[in-house]
């Protein structure tokens, strides 16, 4: 098929982009696909850890006054469960998909800053291990993921638990911030020719909205972490009332970060859904510009609702009504998206496959979480059920329902692209039903528990309050859900080597990652694709044209590590973008940072100062000119 | 009629146990919240039902094929009307409803006929009657039908004061004096529990509100105001074993301020912030090994046993 010219071009590209397999490449690679896969695998491992923590808690709560787990361990478990799910699983997992898919979807050969990308991963891994080392030494964070002061102050939590929390999150923030900036620049500057702003795949819009939110929200969390650590270590007074601080400052700072964080988690997941719905509805998505706009609007309004977490703290009514209004308004962009998906499905010709099943499940459970979310804007009702299991039910419907369902949809949808093989569809569908039924059996009864007055974060409860039956149901549900997850893991492991060969485009999908081979070559595209619509892989002639351009050696950029740099608005070619090759410095710098944070944790200030210097040196080393450059 | 219907519904849901259920309101505030809940539930059920039906419709529709694709547009109006226009109208109405109901749970301004201060401590509740010389713990007696103003404070970390059947919760935050109205339409025992995570024994930080007819309440208050009667040998044990270092018994030398005031401890239904029932066996067990009964609480085991323990328990049991 391909002529000699085309084959020669491809060979040259292979030579340029190839990374010799081995330990050295493992430590130095900057390939976004390898890094993306690492993100996926690592964060999934954290997911399993959080799952084990959840099962332990559900075992303890299965019946009243059970003695499986004592209060100290229980408090650590729910704290680590929350921290892990939010910071070490959902966000990095979605970043993993982003890393793998964004360059492919926008027709690029890598991220804008490949080394920064490798650095983000290593820092994520380091901070995750840092946080989990706390369990080994018996000082896991134990004041919940929102870690309210003054409980988290030295006077009430003396051990290293909270220092682990503060420093671990600060460490992780470096990774998240670097990753977010990388996504923003990549999506704005490295798009394929013709991919104007109104043709960016909706998944990329989700990642873009997430990245902006991260960059704007994380400083509030970091400030809170730094303030609290200064207070714990050096006697500063940000939050302690007797000396003029205010514990509500922590709550404001935390939720200014943490409510947008809900959307940081949710928006890329929405992007996944918007990627999958049109493929299995066999038509373009309904109202593309509205869907993109809704994504960005949600991220924006998401910064104005945080006080609804604080309705019971005794704030003035006028303050509460403002945030209640914002909390209602944010329903509208989500409403547009839900009915955009439903409209697409109803006017298309649906094909039911496992990724689509997870998406359909997502829509139902997310809407349940959405309506209970609206309830929290009803101030008196919020004040009644906040801090009960009703809230636990709600946020699992929006976070597990709103993000983990899409993540599982994504696993089933993109597995063929990443591995070149199909998952076993029957096992996938059986697993789905365990997953769906288990999820609802776990979390639906928690609504009832909250209404019956069961507070959250209790390691035990007394019989006779009407809670026994619903707790038992939830525990049975948790184990059912675990079976569904286990089924998926088995499926992934089996199909990785034994699944049917997928081919480039097993789903007949609309975005560019499906126009290249599965798994994609190191250079992603032999000739950078040229795009004329929001569903480029359904423009069959254009894709044929890509092949013809390869024969003419157009847009192949085979001279070096190169890809296209384009204008941010219209996606016109602006320059040939030089992309750096593998490097040891990202790992070295991340390792230096890990040492720095370990020294900060143990209070070796002089050594920490030296470690700071070493970090600067490593950072300088990163900028050394390479031989041949 | 309405109440019967709600009760029936709640009982179907509840089966048993209702001391702490938000679905069994017993005050103006909680009736208002409860009514709001049913409005929200009905609205939500309609939304979820519509979406679920549309999803099911997708599952049942004529199947397409992965080889074909239809590039047509359309559907935008449907998405905008169903996803934006209709919700906007509903949400504006909901917002108006929320605004109109805010007063039901608002913080009371100024003193009432009966004023109580509740101070959250790790992990129990100190109760002070501001108009009477009464200090007690983990049990709040109020007259039926009278709105009582409760000032909620904390002595250490953040707690949240919550009696689900009588009112919404209110956080107890260092440096703040939040207030709430506590009112019960009928006599009864209403369980409350700390709702903000406050450390190791957050789970066992509960209490009871006892609503009783005015006369009975007067009798209770009169008794609470009296100092404790002399208690013979057990009183001596209380002092010598070290109990008095933390606990106060008015009318005796015991004047500790760390733990609950025990002047009338025997009249209370529960011990250790509603962790255990207040009977002789459990009281003795709690004194002998407090860390077993409520791990992490601040009461140490004082090594009391045998006759000294019996005498102490006798004495505490006499403090009615």
Question: Could you give a short description of this structure?
Answer:
The complex is a heterodimer of chains A (629) and B (320). Chain A has 629 residues and is mostly helical. Helix content of chain A is 66%, strand content 2%.
Structural features, described:
- The complex is a heterodimer of chains A (629) and B (320).
- Chain A has 629 residues and is an all-alpha fold.
- Chain A has helices spanning 4-17, 23-28, 32-61, 71-105, 114-136, 161-189, 202-234, 247-281, 288-301, 317-329, 331-347, 354-377, 379-385, 389-419, 425-451, 468-498, 540-551, 585-602, 605-622, and strands at residues 562-566, 573-578.
- In chain A, α4 (71-105) crosses α8.
- Chain B is an alpha+beta fold.
- Chain B folds into 3 domains: 28-105; 114-217, Sandwich (Immunoglobulin-like), CATH 2.60.40; 232-317, Cupredoxins -  blue copper proteins (Immunoglobulin-like, Sandwich).
- Chain B is 37% helix and 18% strand.
- Chain B is built from 8 helices and 12 strands.
- In chain B, β2 and β3 (134-137) form a beta hairpin.
- The longest helix of chain B has 33 residues, at 28-60.
- The interface between A and B is large, with 97 and 96 residues.
What structural keywords apply?
heterodimer, A: 629 residues, mainly alpha, two-stranded antiparallel sheet, 19 helices, 2% strand, globular, B: 320 residues, alpha+beta, Immunoglobulin-like, 3 domains, 5-stranded mixed beta sheet, 3-stranded mixed beta sheet, 8 helices, 12 strands, 18% strand, disordered N terminus
